[in-house]
Amino acid sequence: MSKRAIATVRESWPLARPFAISRGVKTAADVIVCTIAQDGSVGRGECVPYARYGETLDSVEAAIAAALPAIRRGAGRAELQTLLPPGAARNAIDCALWDLEAKQTGTPVPVLAGLPAPRAAITAYTISLDTPQAMGAAAAEARARPLLKLKLGRDDPVACVAAVRENAPDARLIADANEGWRVEQLRDIAPALADLGVELIEQPVSAEADDGLAGWSCPVTLCADESFHTAADIAGLGGRYSAVNIKLDKAGGLTEAIACLRAARAAGLKVMVGCMVATSLAMAPAALLAADCDYVDLDGPLLLERDRTPGLAFEGSRMDVPPRALWG
User: Fold this and answer.
1) Contacts of 169 (CB under 8 A, 6+ apart)
2) What does the DSSP assignment read for 140-168?
3) Active site residues
4) pTM for the complete prediction?
C-alpha cells in the first residue's frame, strides 16, 4: 500500500437561527474536516473544537498536524489512542480512519466495529435558551416533535419549562443546564421540573462542583456531560449520575465512544449519544450508537441553515440511517 495523503480544512456552517446556552450564543458551526486518502480510497472525519475544554481551531489543527507523520506511515486506530488525548483532534482522525477502512474493504463500519445494524432513530430537537415566552413560542413551532431538549440557564428555568410544556403538551422533555446551576438551586427546582415531565437533566452543575450531588436521590435522572469524557470516567460517576452523554468530540472518536457505551451499560447507566452543533458528517459515526442508546440527541444538522450533500435524511425528528456515500 502507498503512504497516506492527509489534509485538514476549516469550514463554517451558518445556523438557521442563533443558538444560545448558559455559556453564550453562537451563529455558526465552525468545524474541522480531516481527510485521509490511500490507494484511491478516501476517508473523512469532522470535529468541533470546544472552548470549554480549552480547544480552538488553531490548537486542534496543531494537534492533528503532530500526529500526521505516524498516520502517514500507517498508524491505525489503536495507536492513535496513544498519539493524541481524547478530544476533537483525535475524533477527526479516528473517524476518518474508520471511513477509510470501510471504503478500502467494502465493509460497512458497523460490521467492522461489531455494532448492531443501524436503524432509523428519533432524535431530540433542541430549543435554545431564551425567555419563557420565546421558548414557549419555539415549542409551539416544534410541538409535533416527540422529544424536545431545552437549554436552560440560571434565571427562570421552571418558568421556561412550564412555557414549553404548555405549548408542546405531548412532547417528552429533557433539559440541559450546561453547568449553569448550583447544587442548591437544583435541589429546589428538581421537584417542579419532575412535575412538568422533565425526564433527564444534563450536567446541572459544574463538573468541578458535582461532589455535592453524591448521595442525593434526585427525582429527575441526572446525566453526566462535562463530568464524563471517556470510559475511564465511568467508575467515578457512581452516586452522582445515573446516565451519561457520549459525544465523539469528548471521547476522541468512535473507537473510544464504543468503549464508553459498553462501560456505561456494564455499570447499569442510561446512555445518551449527543453532539456538538455540526453537519451530518459529524453525526454519522455517532448515529451508529443510536440503536443501543436510551436517548439520541443528534439534531446538529437540523439547526443549520444548510447541511452537506449528501447528508442525513430527516423526516421531522426521525433520523434515517447514514448513507454510505456520506460516511462509513
Assistant:
1) 143
2) HHTTTSSEEEEE--SSSHHHHHHHHHHH-
3) 151, 247
4) 0.96
Lookup result for grid cell 446556552: 21
Phi, psi of 26 (to 5 degrees): -125, 150
* CA atoms of 37 and 65, how far apart (whole Å): 16
E strands in the chain: 5-21, 24-38, 41-47, 121-122, 125-127, 147-151, 172-176, 198-202, 221-224, 243-246, 270-273, 295-296, 314-315, 318-319
Topology at the third CATH level for domain 5-106: Enolase-like; domain 1 (3.30.390)
End-to-end CA separation in angstroms for the chain: 21
Domain residues of the chain, as ranges? 5-106, 121-319
Q: What is the assigned CATH class of domain 121-319? A: alpha beta
Express each pLDDT in 127-138 by its tens digit: 999 999 999 999
Q: Rg of the chain over CA atoms, in angstroms?
A: 19
